[in-house]
């Protein structure tokens, strides 16, 4: 399907379908990067706005899910490198609200995983390991899909996945 010939109403229908189908998945993916519920919600909205504006560039060469994930991952990485992320400090009230909901949010991200220690260990891994674990185990992407999505060759993805498991094992044994 090429989206570049669609009118605005058709683009809105496509976007609504994407949001209904992938909205919660994108939210969980974004949360795995930023570890903050409110920011994950804001970034998810920005991602779908970016998707709407970029629908004309989707040519159907890749799966639409892969295309959307690529936009989300790039947006998260851009945010993590941004001035705002590095220098804006959360106030005491906002911090308290975030911490109060943290356990509930983490359970959503890890799909209601009962082992709270596993959640903490995964969220404390460096982002390059956290992303491969999340995408491989929770989004069930193959190594080849992961390779395309994060822009690294398949052997690098395998190495990161292996190293992520080793780090996770070390942290859980502590």
Main sheet summary? none
Average pLDDT for all residues: 79
The number of distinct β-strands equals 0
Number of domains: 2
CATH architectural label of the largest domain: Orthogonal Bundle
What does this structure look like?
This protein has 174 residues and is mainly alpha-helical. It has two domains: 1-109, RNA polymerase sigma factor, region 2, helix turn helix motif (Rna Polymerase Sigma Factor, Chain: A); 111-174, Arc Repressor Mutant, subunit A, CATH 1.10.10.10. Helix content is 77%, strand content 0%. It contains nine helices and no strands. The protein is globular. The termini are far apart. Mean pLDDT is 79; it is low at 1-5, 92-96 and 109-114.
Topology, please?
Layout: H1 8-34, H2 37-54, H3 64-81, H4 83-87, H5 92-109, H6 116-123, H7 127-138, H8 143-150, H9 154-173
Fill in the keyword field for this structure:
Rna Polymerase Sigma Factor, Chain: A; disordered N terminus; mainly alpha; 174 residues; 0% strand; Arc Repressor Mutant, subunit A
Short summary:
With 174 residues, the protein is mostly helical.
